[in-house]
TrEMBL record:
Protein name as it appears in the record: Fe-S cluster assembly ATPase SufC
Family the entry assigns: Belongs to the ABC transporter superfamily. Ycf16 family.
GO MF entry, a single one: ATP hydrolysis activity
Domain ABC transporter: 4-245
Annotated source species: Enorma massiliensis
């Protein structure tokens, strides 16, 4: 069985249907990319997989590790091993980043660590990501740039070691430094955790150093095209127009 198997998924916000029958399968250990024009429903799909209560699943199934997740709360899905990057960690003045990260694994069986072990692990991760460890003493989210938020996401990802990581890369304003951290983080996650990735993006630069197995293209709430990694270069050159025209012709 594939790690993630989505069939006939439809979802709505405030009675408005946004996802119209999505089929998407991700085998364990693979790196998949979800692309599509702005407003296609890519982020919505990520939120629906995570069980975000802002969205109503109106049809279809989402099976993870062979189990239907439809009735599970976001917390249960997270504990089952699904991770969705959120772009803006909350600002909590006075709480250092290290405490926040420690809390995210505090009640996870198999992940809890003693203080000393946690500090050693964080030092290791900072070295691997090429981040100054002093960063961990910063107050959570306060004055964080887009790139700094990305670094926090990568630390979370590598601490939690989820089975499936959905990374929504809508923020294209990353500097070279942050792009490096994201690339290194994804690579470490794939190799050291044997992780499975779904990267949502229209920023193809983030994909340059990744070994991509499959690309899914979404338009108007539907997956309209799929292909191998060569599709990324094709989209870089031609954009989404052809897919949008085909989708308009079909409906
Ligand atoms: P993408 O990530 O591909 O740019 P989104 O999933 O963000 O697309 O949005 C798809 C459509 O759903 C858009 O028309 C957007 O306005 C709408 N939408 C998404 N989330 C919400 C929400 N929470 N409330 C209202 N409309 C939403
Ligand atoms: Mg592979
Ligand atoms: Mg989006």
């Amino acid at each position: 069985t594939p790690l993630l198997s989505i069939q006939g998924l439809a979802a709505a916000v405030d009675e408005k249907t946004i996802l119209h029958g999505i089929d998407l399968t991700i085998p364990a250990g693979e790196t998949h990319v979800l692309m599509g024009p702005n407003g296609a429903g890519k982020s919505t799909l990520g939120h629906v997989i995570m069980g975000d209560p802002a969205y109503t699943q109106t049809a279809g199934t989402i099976a993870f590790d062979g189990e239907d997740m439809t009735e599970l709360s976001p917390d249960k899905r997270s504990r089952a091993g699904v991770f969705l990057s959120f772009q803006a960690p909350v600002e909590i003045p006075g709480v250092p980043l290290s405490s926040f990260l420690r809390a995210t694994i505090a009640d996870r069986p198999g992940l809890e660590m003693r203080g000393k072990e946690f500090r050693r692990r964080m030092k290791e991760l900072c070295a691997e990501l090429d981040m100054p460890p002093a960063y961990l003493n910063r107050e959570l989210g306060v004055g964080f740039s887009g790139g700094e938020k990305k670094k926090v996401e990568m630390l979370q990802l590598l601490l939690l070691q989820p089975k499936l990581a959905i990374l929504d890369e809508t923020d294209s304003g990353l500097d070279v430094d942050a792009l490096g951290v994201v690339s290194r983080g994804m690579d470490l996650y794939r190799k050291s955790c044997d992780g499975t990735l779904l990267i949502i993006t229209h920023n193809t630069r983030i994909l340059e150093h990744l070994d991509v197995d499959r690309v899914h293209v979404m338009v108007n709430g539907r997956v309209v095209h799929e292909g191998d990694a060569s599709l990324i270069d094709w989209i870089d050159e031609h954009g989404f127009e052809r897919f949008e025209q085909e989708a308009a012709g079909d409906s």
